[in-house]
Specification:
Largest sheet: 3 strands, antiparallel
Order of helices and strands: HEHEEH
Number of helices: 3
Radius of gyration: 12 Å
Strand order of the largest sheet: 1-3-2
CATH architecture: Orthogonal Bundle
Number of strands: 3
Length: 88
């Protein structure tokens, strides 16, 4: 079973690989992709937590919400990614 930190790590790892820092955004609907179907609800909750922690920056658009990584939170991002990479 995945812990909250591992789910956060996978989301952040995905955004890092995609290069989604500051001014480069991706749709929030893309983030649950790649997770098992039974975890997708939990992933959506976790995305809200990452926004509250100011790790994810939100940008509303006419076609939906977009998110990017807050580079000022680099230490937390690396912490969560390392938690995810421990299980792989």
């Amino acid at each position: 079973m995945w812990t909250d930190e591992q789910i956060k790590g996978k989301i952040l790892h995905k955004l890092t690989r995609m290069g989604k820092f500051e001014h480069s955004h991706t749709s929030i609907d893309n983030l649950p992709k790649g997770f098992p179907k039974d975890l997708r609800g939990k992933v959506k909750e976790t995305i809200k937590e990452l926004k509250k922690e100011s790790i994810l920056l939100s940008k509303p658009t006419s076609y939906g919400e977009e998110v990017s990584l807050n580079v000022q939170m680099k230490e937390r991002i690396v912490f969560y990614i390392n938690k995810f990479l421990e299980i792989e």
